[in-house]
Queue: 4 jobs
Job 1
Amino acid sequence: MPPLSELTYSHDACIAAFHDCYSFLANMYLDESVVIEPPEGGWPNITAATKKDLGKTETVISLLRQPYIRNTFNILERVQGAPGCYFADWQALVPLISTGYFRPFRGRWWTCTPHFGLGAMG
């Protein structure tokens, strides 16, 4: 494995890693129906305005337009990526954020490590 300093970002490899992770989880214990695929071109409600609302780069917004683990907003049914840490369903959260329903807490959207699309609103 090359040292971290020699690695470069690959959009396609990153998306493939999300697909692999979600497939692994579906094979292990998730119902396949909780993995939701975006329409061609990504989720229509994740737009340039989303970039402004979240303060993210175009690269991050592009990744947010990829597949998700469905969020029912029912705490008893939500899929945990780690104990107490839920997958963020951005296609469902973005409308709530853009209308001001959700706001960052102490300048952060995350209540746990945001790696691999894991996060919790709080």
Job 2
Amino acid sequence: CRPTPPPLAAVIIMLHVAISAISANMDSFARGRTAILKKQPSHMEAAHFGDL
């Protein structure tokens, strides 16, 4: 029995899993960034209220 290369379906599944994992990481990173950006204006508003 000579070693056969992995079937195309397995390769496609592995690529799909890797791409989905990367996209999930990017989504969580983007969500964290937007949360940080949303927090900053509130701090600036608090500073303005402090000036008043």
Job 3
Amino acid sequence: MSTEDILELLVFSTTRFKFSSCIPPYCMEFEIG
């Protein structure tokens, strides 16, 4: 796995986590790391 692969995976996971924690009109943003 290259560094770019890992970064892509991190971004993807963070984005999915943010979406799954978003219940309109109340959105909670989580910072990971």
Job 4
Amino acid sequence: AWEQPDLLAQAEGGIALFLHNWPETYSYTLSEAVAHGLFPLVPDLGAPAERVRRAGFGAVFGFPIDAGEVLRAIEQATAREMPDRAGPAAFATHEAAEAHAALMQESARPVAQAGRRAGRRRERDRLSA
């Protein structure tokens, strides 16, 4: 049996090319590739393109996919010099911040609901007194 992280650790090269032709919703494969230091190239379709743009790490090429455009994206990716601020850490930091914000929103919802219920009880008690 193979494990994806083991395969990525053994991979030679520095880019991860995604050629999906339907809108992906998140793409854990993108997360794994970036975590292993690969520079992602994704089509302008779905969440992977949004994630790459927000993180500022990776490149987005047009959709529908054109072979010539993909080849140019590969050439540019292999010739690039990585800016100091970009890289897997920048991608992961953005992802972690989004996950933390979502968790905080989810956690705050029950507290807010409980506060409203308590306020309604106090108002009922005040009116019935």
